[in-house]
Amino acid sequence: MEHFSLEAEQSIIGSILKSPELIYEVTLQPEEFYHAGHKIVFEKMIELRDVNTKIDIVSLVASLGDQIQELGGASYLLKLSQSIPTVANFVYHEQIVREKSLMREGMRSLDEVYNAGFDDPAEFAAELTSIAEVIGDGSRRKEGFVHISEGLESHYNQLQEKKYSEKPVGISTAGTALDRITGKWQKQSLNIIAARPSVGKTALMLNNARKNAHEGMTVAIFSLEQPERQLYDRMISAECLIDGDRIRTGQLLDNEWEKYVVAYAKMVGLSLYIDDRPGLTIQEIRSAVRKLKKKNPDLIVYIDYLQLIKGGKKFDNRTMEVGYVSTSLKHMSRENDCPVIALAQLSRGVEQRQDKRPMLSDLRESGNIEQDADTITFLYRDDYYDKETEKKNIIECIVAKNREGSVGTAEMINMKQYGKFVDIDINHHELPDIRKGA
């Protein structure tokens, strides 16, 4: 099969010569043309458009100069303009040129991958997946505008669903105060939870994930830092309020075994999946999420943590790679219509300030994270820095960016021995008053 269509390319150029205003509607780029002469002509058409010069055979021949000979002279352009009976198929032919270009680009990329001589199967697979995504994204390109009648009809249906559906709007976070500020996790959103090491990012993520699964969501966790067994230890500890150290060592008291069995029975039926492969590429993550989404439409994705994801190809520097990963995660949330929550490490720059609460500026050296994220929540514990603080076992969830809502700080009790977070005003007889360190 030929990966080009000279007829479609000729139709594009001939249609523009016949109806010059089409140059303002065309979305192709010169490099998408296969025929060298067609590329040159289209480039000149773009140049004439950019200087507000009407495109016709005279202006085009003058702009091309000696290059016109590569097309066989001005007669070739005249033939093209006269051979187009109608421009009605312009968009269709434009799509053909684009699809053929995507196929050629894909074949070139495959040749490059083949000739690169990969020794690592994972890197090889990541490159192949990346090529497939580029072709897939390009082939799904659609018209940009939606008429207000269509848009409002969709909006009306969504509003009706929110009003009368029993399903809550958005997906819960670990705390009600945090829900109020963030408006909960929304579909197609990228949400960043960032902090210094050992502040509580993973614990908060597991609290969120466990709560979402109990509420009927399908939860996917990519744990690039810790093996799945450690996550089970932590989730069981928080579920049944058994000290995490005893869970890890297996030294459970008799009554704790009973609590463990009850928690086990509650959790074993949850729709919760963990992928703990280290060194995953963003292409592998997107592929895994896509497969899981097909079987589980109500999906939420957690990643621990963003900076451990590999870009799957070569980059000039680490910042560019992190930016590529961040943008890819945002695309993943949209293509799978699900929230993505990614943990992120903050640099040591936080430690240099007197007030060590993180700020958005602490993310500026981390690729495009600040730009791509819909919400950014920083975690801060005063007792992490000041052992004598009156705010023992209190974690601050600082919502510093919220594209569709407010910003602010939600405080929660951090029950460190269980790895559990609870609302600060909770009233439950089983929970000790640990705000004073008890």
What brief labels describe this structure?
438 residues, Rossmann fold, elongated, DNAb Helicase, Chain A, 9 strands, 9-stranded mixed sheet, alpha/beta, 16 helices, 2 domains, single chain
In brief:
With 438 residues, the chain is α/β, with parallel strands linked by helices. It has helices at residues 6-18, 36-50, 57-64, 74-82, 90-116, 121-139, 148-164, 176-182, 201-214, 228-240, 244-249, 254-267, 282-295, 318-335, 369-372, 382-385; strands spanning 190-195, 218-223, 272-275, 299-304, 340-345, 375-381, 394-402, 408-415, 420-423.
Structure characterization notes:
The protein has 438 residues and is an alpha/beta fold. The chain has two domains: 6-117, DNAb Helicase, Chain A (Orthogonal Bundle); 169-436, P-loop containing nucleotide triphosphate hydrolases (Rossmann fold, 3-Layer(aba) Sandwich), CATH 3.40.50.300. Helix content is 46%, strand content 13%. It has helices spanning 6-18, 36-50, 57-64, 74-82, 90-116, 121-139, 148-164, 176-182, 201-214, 228-240, 244-249, 254-267, 282-295, 318-335, 369-372, 382-385; strands at 190-195, 218-223, 272-275, 299-304, 340-345, 375-381, 394-402, 408-415, 420-423. Strands 3-2-4-5-1-6-7-8-9 form a nine-stranded mixed sheet, sandwiched between helices. Helix 14 links the parallel strand 4 and strand 5 (340-345). Helix 1 (6-18) packs across helix 4 (74-82), helix 2 crosses helix 3 and helix 6 crosses helix 13. The longest helix has 27 residues, at 90-116. It is elongated and about 95 Å long. The termini are far apart. Residues 427-438 have low confidence and may be disordered.
